[in-house]
Specification:
Largest sheet: 6 strands, mixed
Structural class: alpha/beta
Strand order of the largest sheet: 1-3-2-4-5-6
Low-confidence stretches: 1-12
Mean pLDDT: 82
Radius of gyration: 18 Å
Helix content: 40-55%
Number of helices: 10
Amino acid sequence: MTATEPVSTPDAEGVIRVAVADDQAVVRMGLRALLERAPGMECVGEAADGSAALALIRRVRPDVLLLDIRMPGMDGLATLRAIAEDPGLRGTRIVVVTTFAVDEYVFAALQAGASGFVLKDSAPEELVNAVRVVAAGEALLSPAITRKVIGMFGRHGAGPVEGLETLTPRERELVAWVATGRSNEEIAEELVISPDTVRTHVSRAMVKLRARDRAQLVVFAMRAGLSIPA
């Protein structure tokens, strides 16, 4: 169980503070080098397993954690659940670094509170963009990953969602559209309304459902069986 932190530097306004958790040293080294080269970002620590990652984020409170799912000891899913259960850590958003081969973890990671997913073989600019998107409070769910989640929820079946009855018909519709993986702009184009209107309804739905981000809205939509008209 190991964690390392770079020499501390003064915080700069607007800088996204990122931590990395992966059991492979070469992966951590590559991610750290990438983050340190990206404008407006700094790597505030590394961890080789879930226990070390949890201790690290409690100590340095990063904005974003890049988290591997498959790690020895306390794995990524257990780490996600521990973060979700600690109110003091809810300011840290989690990007799961994964591969399409690990299908079963996508469903569980979303339920546990992941805000997005990035493939380990993604281009550097895609990973940097993922950090920026999630740090801004958005979800990072590609259509391919969304389809996998929909398929898994389809096998598990729909169920009750607390707060669903408080949503207006329009809010339900917008939550269903969010679950397709589309952005506000794409939804607005489909429905011929303004992106601001989409954003307003989505934000209200998030408050009513107590969702921390759009990724959780996807979970709620799938669990409730919401879907867009065919």
